Amino acid sequence: MKDSGVAWLGSIPAGWTVVGARRLFALRSQRATADDAQLTASQAYGVIPQDEFVAREGRRVVQVIKDPSILKHVEPGDFVISMRSFQGGIERSDDRGSVSSAYVVLRPLPAVHARYFTYLLKCKSYIQALQSTSDLVRDGQALRYDNFALVRLPLVPLVEQKTIADYLDSETARIDALIDRKQRFVDLLLEKRTTVITHAVTRGLDPSVEMKDSAVVCLGMVPAHWAVAPLRRVITWMEQGWSPQCDNRPAEESEWSVVKAGIVNGGVFHHDERKGLPAHLEPQPRYELHPGDLLVSRANGSLQYIGSAGVVPTDVRSRTLLCDKVFRMHLDRDAAVPEFIAAALQSGPVRYQIQRDATGTSTMRNVGQDTLRALVVGLPTVGEQREIIESIRQQHAEIGVLVDKTRTSIDLLREYRTALISAAVTGQIDIPGTETSEDVA
């Protein structure tokens, strides 16, 4: 090893040298041709056709239709500096096409093995070096070719570039497969949470109890001693909050705030889903939240979360106001426990009813008071409702421990993946086959 003389690289193998980036990448300024397909530069997938990006993400992107000549041509193997490259590195394209004129297209020169630089130009230490070339705090400032040229790069024998790239392809694929397996396990655990809720609020806790037909297709059989009724039987009244003009800045603990639509997404009260109330607006105390309040999402951009319900916890911070996209549901406490109704609203049969009757567009779904009042649920006694909620809490706590441990291991694997790439592309670890310095095409 020897000192590279470059801070972000540190020590490098003795057979490597360091050169200016212009020695390895030229600037491609060719205009797009008429038959060029438009490409999207993304941190998640690299540079891919826009149609493929839309299919993967489920959302559209802006296309240049009137004058495609203002776009830049991209060849397979080119690298693209996008507006987010200062955050996630420089992306490579496997396709011929065109990108926005705001982007910088880099043409690899003969000393470059594309797969090796795919890893190097996205490793953490390189991104930090790239960030240091410009003050990117100011809005609208973009990385240019001159910024790119300021960061010196390692000149590695081509055979070693290929060997390192092959090694990283293999190792990252192995790590990614392990992450996918662990993520599937997390998904199964989260599905089990819903299953626990559904079973408890539709079957109860006693497996030997006599059952009866609820006469509701999606609800099926319920304990014989339970009532089966629409929620209007236990709702005394409902209200929604107000919609003041708030910026999206996080709310300070010392100020009044207004909840966002996602406050109870997934049946969990998310305290951070709040926005600060501007100082010039007078808070309306009638909308203040209190521990034990039952909240139901009235409007949401996702059908998955419409009608989500949760109870304001006892340790909630005060000075938080209800917004117009969330209902507060007041119950007859002699007939229903808020936590039980919240759980029922998260159960499979009731979720089916909510999603079936929701209105609105694909970008904003709504559920009205009449729809919520008409939802049919099984209703045990208040005492049994409390027992069911306690059982759900215990089972969810056990599941939560497994979810947290698995997510921690996923985070550690991702950190290891990042560190492995950085160490490999900068020559910090021994990789079998990198001892030779002979170049190969």
Write a brief caption for the model:
With 441 residues, the protein is of the alpha+beta class. The protein contains ten helices and 26 strands. The protein has three domains: 2-154, DNA methylase specificity domains (Adenine-n6-DNA-methyltransferase TaqI, Chain A, domain 2), CATH 3.90.220.20; 157-204 and 386-441; 208-379, Alpha-Beta Complex (Adenine-n6-DNA-methyltransferase TaqI, Chain A, domain 2), CATH 3.90.220.20.
Overall CATH architecture of the largest domain? Alpha-Beta Complex
- The name CATH uses for the topology of the largest domain is Adenine-n6-DNA-methyltransferase TaqI, Chain A, domain 2
Q: What structural class results from the helix and strand content? A: alpha+beta
Average of pLDDT: 90
Helix content: 25-40%
Query: Roughly what fraction of the amino acids lie in strands?
Result: 15-25%
Low-pLDDT segments, ≥5 res = 436-441
How far apart, in Å, are the first and last alpha carbons? 25 Å
Secondary-structure map:
Blueprint: E1 2-3, E2 11-12, E3 17-19, E4 25-28, E5 39-42, E6 46-49, H1 50-57, E7 72-74, E8 79-81, H2 85-88, E9 91-92, E10 97-99, E11 104-108, H3 114-120, H4 124-131, H5 145-149, E12 153-155, H6 158-203, E13 211-213, E14 221-223, E15 227-230, E16 235-240, E17 257-259, E18 274-276, E19 294-297, E20 299-300, E21 309-311, E22 320-321, E23 326-331, H7 338-346, H8 348-357, E24 359-360, E25 365-366, H9 369-374, E26 376-379, H10 382-425
Parallel strand pairs: 17-22
Antiparallel strand pairs: 1-2, 3-12, 4-11, 5-6, 7-10, 8-9, 8-11, 13-14, 15-26, 16-23, 17-18, 19-21, 19-23, 20-25, 24-25
Helix pairs in contact: 3-6, 6-7, 6-10
